[in-house]
Design brief:
CATH superfamily of the largest domain in chain B: Pleckstrin-homology domain (PH domain)/Phosphotyrosine-binding domain (PTB)
Order of helices and strands of chain B: EEEEEEEHEEEEEEEEHHHHH
Structural class of chain B: alpha+beta
Structural class of chain A: alpha/beta
Largest sheet of chain B: 8 strands, antiparallel
Number of strands of chain B: 15
Radius of gyration of chain A: 12 Å
CATH class of one domain in chain A: Alpha Beta
Distance between the termini of chain A: 13 Å
Distance between the termini of chain B: 85 Å
Strand order of the largest sheet of chain A: 2-1-3-4-5
Strand content of chain B: 35-45%
Helix content of chain B: 25-40%
CATH architecture of the largest domain in chain B: Roll
Helix content of chain A: 40-55%
CATH topology of the largest domain in chain B: PH-domain like
Number of domains of chain B: 3
Radius of gyration of chain B: 25 Å
Number of helices of chain B: 6
Largest interface: A-B, 24 and 25 residues
CATH architecture of one domain in chain A: 3-Layer(aba) Sandwich
Oligomer: heterodimer
Shape of chain B: extended
CATH class of the largest domain in chain B: Mainly Beta
Number of helices of chain A: 5
Shape of chain A: globular
Number of strands of chain A: 5
Strand content of chain A: 15-25%
Chain lengths: 120, 269
């Protein structure tokens, strides 16, 4: 179980992830609606894990991932991509993402990925 | 000809026999006494280590075969290579995505795609995977990065034990278009116009997909039970959801209230 920062520009997806993570016994450290906010919240909250949407306004998920990895090279970040954006996964992994989930996702698989990344 | 040990259903009973198998046919000895040319097989399903073959004839015959995994693998490979089906050589990745998570160690395999009456088979030297057409949730001609290049592929999503599993097929574009059209035609019952659901209905469908129950959905979308019930009615009517459980809410009767009051008194005394 860990504390998790949820980053997504839509309230709907944040709420969905929050529910899934709660049901898996995780605590929500906080939420961010764009990459800029994500970096600031990461500094402030030092979560065990971040779920990061790729496409967001202001600073996108890949840029935010880079910034977080500069702040904390051991940061655990799972990228959330939409179907058709899997090519972004390669870039995210190169940048230091520990895992990835593809939207629309299903709760058991999200929890499994979170568990794997937290254990890494 | 190779002899293989099989159990074959005959007159409602399983009969143990040694069948002769060649490149183009299988021969069952007495008491079945039947020769089946692979080209006369127009459908094959696999249900818990039982192969179900549909054989053209007058009338068509259904043959059920059981055996050890090693024998079934060889049989399936021979039948899929010779049966009456839409067949193409391709690279495929199956499963590529499971429940929204990219499958670990997923890789492109060289093999063939064989579409029979009720299913799509992904066949390579190492595996034979069947996706029933009734479980296909989406077919899309799209692009993926393959060896650094944006490449045309067909994505086939199907539902397996409540999870959405995606498989990818890679071959020349013209063949992909034929495959996509063929599969769309074979599964046209699942197509929707796209305007059947309003935004709240879509959100509900997305939450159901993600595994949320009614209580969670009501809380997340801040909608009353009655409204959610109406949305459920709509999506059930459209055939995109089905009832799996009816949960009841109850309140205590006077008898129940008295029981709880008494029990509380007993506990506090």
């Amino acid at each position: 179980m860990g504390t998790i920062l949820i980053v997504d520009d839509t309230l709907f997806m944040r709420t969905l992830l929050k529910n899934i993570l709660f049901s898996g016994g995780h605590s929500i450290a906080g939420e961010a609606a764009n990459g800029e906010e994500a970096v600031a919240k990461y500094k402030e909250l030092k979560p065990d894990l971040v779920t990061m949407d790729v496409v967001m306004p202001k600073v996108n998920g890949i840029e935010a991932l880079k910034a977080i990895k500069q702040l904390d090279p051991a940061a655990r970040v799972i990228m959330c991509t939409a179907v058709g954006q899997e090519q972004m996964v390669k870039l995210a992994i190169k940048t230091g993402a520990k895992g990835y989930i593809v939207k629309p996702f299903q709760a058991p698989k999200v929890l499994e990925e979170v568990k794997n990344v937290l254990a890494s | 000809m190779t002899e293989v040990p099989l159990k074959v259903e005959h007159d409602g009973k399983w009969v143990v026999i040694k069948a002769s198998v060649s490149e183009d046919r299988i021969t069952f000895p007495e008491p079945i006494d039947k020769e089946i040319l692979f080209k006369s097989i127009f459908d094959m399903e696999e249900k818990k280590s039982v192969l179900v073959l549909m054989v053209k004839g007058n009338p068509d015959a259904i043959i059920r075969i059981a055996s050890v995994e090693k024998v079934l693998v060889v049989l399936k490979r021979l039948i899929l290579a010779g049966c009456n089906a839409y067949r193409l050589m391709a690279y495929f990745m199956s499963p590529a995505i499971r429940g929204g998570v990219l499958a670990k160690n997923a890789q492109w395999e060289k093999g063939s795609i064989v579409v029979v009456k009720t299913g799509i088979w992904f066949v390579s030297a190492a595996k034979q995977i069947c996706v029933p057409l009734t479980d296909v949730a989406a077919i899309e001609l799209t692009k993926r990065e393959v060896q650094g290049k944006q490449t045309d592929i067909v994505r086939i999503d199907h539902v397996e034990s409540g999870e959405v599993v995606s498989s990818l097929v890679l071959c020349p574009l013209s063949t992909l278009q034929v495959l996509a059209n063929f599969l769309k035609d074979a599964t046209k019952g699942i197509d929707m116009a796209g305007n059947e659901l309003d935004s709240v209905d879509q959100q509900v469908a997305m939450l159901v997909y993600s595994g949320m129950d009614s209580h969670a959905i009501e809380n997340m979308l801040n909608i009353p039970h009655k409204q959610l019930d109406e949305i459920y009615d709509r999506i059930i009517k459209l055939g995109i959801a089905e009832v799996i459980i009816i949960r009841r809410e109850v309140q205590l009767t006077t008898k129940g209230v008295r029981y709880i009051s008494d029990a509380t008194k007993t506990q506090t005394n």
